[in-house]
Amino acid sequence: MAVKELTSADFEQAVKGNEIALFDFFATWCGPCKAFSPIFDKVADENPDIFFGKIDIDKNQELANAANVQAVPTLMIVKKGHVIYQEAGALREADLNDLIGQAKALDVEAALAAAKAAGTDQDELIEEHDA
């Protein structure tokens, strides 16, 4: 599936309308963003069953603030309407593919229930990734 450039207006529909969605928050002036972009595009082409969107933080400052984006690039993965991963930094292709595999395998309801029972953070269900 081709990567779609999103705005604040269509972000919510992308979250609600797709089981799994990956979002790349980027800036045109950001060197690491430019390096990550072809990787994101290639992995998007290899995963047509997943929605891939890019959000320019300079054109969508309100959305970036609402998503608590502190640095770019920031990758956000949403599954069934829940943010399951959000981390700043460019990833290698193998690391991005690994995260996608984890996202596909994650049982969101079970992970939320386990996090709630353990009293841990329910905002990020895939553990922080060591790149």
UniProtKB/TrEMBL annotation:
Keywords: Disulfide bond
GO molecular function, one term: protein-disulfide reductase activity
UniProt xrefs under Pfam families: Thioredoxin
InterPro entries on file: Thioredoxin, Thioredoxin-like_sf, Thioredoxin_domain
The protein, known as: Thioredoxin
NCBIfam families: thioredoxin (TIGR01068)
Thioredoxin domain span: 1-117
